[in-house]
Amino acid sequence: MSTALIQDPSRRAVATWLFAVAALVFIMVVVGGITRLTESGLSMTDWHPVTGWLPPLSDSAWQAEFDRYKAFPEYRKVNLGMTLDEFRTIFAWEFSHRLLGRIIGLAFFVPMAVFMLTGRIRRREIPWFLFLLVAGGSQGALGWFMVQSGLVDRPDVSQYRLAAHLTLAFSIYALLLWTAWSVREQGRARLALTAMRTPATILAVLVLLQIVIGAFVAGINAGHIYNTWPLMDGALVPDGLFAQGSGLAALFDDHLTIQFIHRIGAYTLLAVAIWVLLRGRRTGGRARPASMGVLHAIGLQILLGIATLVMVVPVWLGALHQATALLVWTAALWLARLAWTDARKRVA
To answer: Are 70 and 183 in the same domain?
Structure first.
């Protein structure tokens, strides 16, 4: 048998580890969404990248943490009169989000070091895995940079920093999945679905763009107004688009405009998904179920988006909407993987 078709069993552990870390990132993104939806993100007013593994453990420690929070604008302008028990609730979400980040860091670094020492991660791959480690660490720094923007006179984080934070999270998730697929497929024979490259690429780019737009919708709480569908402010195309501000402000600071663009993005994605399915049926093979999976995921996401809007963004539904965005992203990445990667070229 050709060595190109022999799979190294020792590499399966590397792929499994990467899939597990990607799953943790998935959970992290969902918890981050809940943190945003419950307006808990500004409850922790400092950042200790190395320490800070434990929450306050005594009544006096909790009171001291609460007193620090009271010194910042969110308490004075939004939560004046909040009780200590109410503060514990929002603190728990932000603390859980940060704790997950630390756990992910350890879950990546420790096995990576072991796999490097034992040769399961090959020498030529080490720079790539170190890059993934740095990317994960930079996400924590970007998260604190985002939080800092809300610890000022305006007690809400910058939508631009929020969008950057979410985009990096989705990018790290994609890199982990892609690397895991690469490791798992080494030594397996599979032809790339070259006929699907154009539609798969367009789809993946549009999915990521829609996710970024969704971050801006969340960043300025644009889902809390114009809560009707299919009409928006009484029309399919409402008056006043791009009327607020100029330049980027007209696009990313205006509730009406950004929500309208998000709606149009959903319709566009649905149309592209149907095109991808038609191309997938003609291509056959793995393209058929992969393109069908993409369409189903996007259809479900649109339904959840409509429900989230008309119900004025309940926390559970908003979190489910964000989780499904990750599923759509996963499906789009898998289709792109099938279209662009020929596993036969990879030697174990």
So the answer is: yes
